[in-house]
Amino acid sequence: MPKVFLRLLACCTLVLGFGLVIGCGGREANNSAVLSVKATDARGVEIVLPHYAERVVVLFEPFVDEMYMLGAGDKLVGIPQQVYQNPSTYHYLSQVDSRIARKEIATPTFGGRSTQVETVIGLQADLAIVYEYDTETIAQLEGLDIPVFVVSSKDKAHIYDELVGVGTLIGKKERAENIVAYVNSAIEGMATEADSVRKSVYYAWSKGRVFSTSGRGSLVDLSIQVAGAVNACPLPLEAPNVSAESIYKWNPDMIVLWNSDVDDVYSLAELAALPAVVNKQVFAMEPTFFFDPHTVKFLLFAKQLRHWGYHEYTDKNFKEELQEIVGFLYENNMSLE
């Protein structure tokens, strides 16, 4: 074989080999850029994953709901027992996931927030989403090298940041940002409609706890403000217990319930003379699934409040608007029925 040809072949081989090295190096860099994801949780801790999470355990019930809003319900391998035990949540999430309907997704929890860590390990989760107060569970999971994204849902900023943070870790960041933009736009639209006279609202906690309320700075307070109303409770506390005398003193225009019945108020002799009771201005948020203030659905809570308090449109118009918002949040996979 001529020496010139051999030299030419060697040069071509060298160039080709160099090109392959550069090409492979470029692909590795691109994969690293795509597959290494990070987000900061409610603690200010940066969670770094080598790739998008595909097997997610959620131990905070409201965030199960938000996983479906993100279009990531298929990534769920573990959820709280309460999802199956809450009739409203179970009914509506069954519409978007047949595994929920058949109760097939594992529930690594006992009553309340107690978690069976061994079950989480068996589920081979590459991400766990845990409520900030479940400190023991957080410590146990992190001690087993399971990445934990802690959520608080304590105000609008945290709800937004946590949604985008989880969206980033599971490959749904754009969807999360679109949800935040949609909710913000709706809030801005409501602000332009607010009446000059702000009605006062007393909120009573679930399961008939009429004398337990939410003070200033709480999530319910956020919903009341977005509705263009004012929280009748002036106390800067998350969940104060109050007396009948205090409620008479505050004299709210409306009383609003979540996961309670209006008769829980109307049957109380202590509040029988309260103007809001006399004037039949006691309302219950039903179905509870659509009005959870721990998620971006604080918007729906506010919309319902505004409809009751300011009568700016008919029941039919409100239902149509509710369906439009629900359609966006669940990508038209859920009905109001």
UniProtKB/TrEMBL annotation:
Fe/B12 periplasmic-binding domain residues: 55-313
Pfam families recorded: Peripla_BP_2
Protein name as catalogued: Iron ABC transporter substrate-binding protein
InterPro entries: ABC_Transporter_SBP, ABC_transptr_periplasmic_BD
